[in-house]
Amino acid sequence: MSSIREEIIEIVKKATKPREPNLSDENRPLLELGLDSLDYATTMMEVEEKYRLKVAEEDMEHLSSLRDIITFVEARVQKSS
Questions:
Q1: How does pLDDT run across 3-51, given as a tens digit for each residue?
Q2: Do residues 50 and 27 make contact, with C-beta atoms less than 8 angstroms apart?
Q3: For helices 37-51 and 66-80, what crossing angle results, to 10°?
Q4: Which structural domain, as residue segments, surrounds residue 68?
Q5: Distance CA 73, CA 9 (A)
Q6: Cα–Cα distance measured from residue 78 to residue 73, given in angstroms and rounded to the nearest whole number
Q7: Whether residue 80 has pLDDT greater than 80
Q8: Residue 29 in contact with residue 65, Cβ under 8 Å?
Q9: How many domains are there within the chain?
Q10: Helices (H) and strands (E) in the chain — how many of each?
């Protein structure tokens, strides 16, 4: 079974194909790692769909890095379990 981290990395890679951003620094904002705003929006829509979450606009402002997104999803998935 994949971890949430691995699944979100795959979502980001899928959203940025054929480019592959360097995701080794999970704390850097995704927009600094080669994603554009459309890639970011696609990533967040896929995250919402995969985990059946609704990310509020005010939350979206604080989800800039891979680590931010992973932490956000992990907290919501654990609450719903």
A1: 999 999 999 999 999 888 889 999 999 999 989 999 999 999 999 999 9
A2: no
A3: 20
A4: 4-80
A5: 13
A6: 8
A7: no
A8: yes
A9: 1
A10: 4, 0
Contacts 24+ apart (CB under 8 A), 19-26: 23/66, 26/65, 26/66, 26/67, 26/70
Q: The domain that contains 41 carries what CATH number? A: 1.10.1200.10
Whole-number Å distance between alpha carbons of 20 and 15: 9
Kindly give, in sequence order, each residue whose CB lies less than 8 Å from that of residue 40, ignoring residues fewer than 6 positions away. Answer: 15, 30, 31
pTM for this structure? 0.91
Q: How many CB atoms lie within 10 A of CB 47?
A: 22
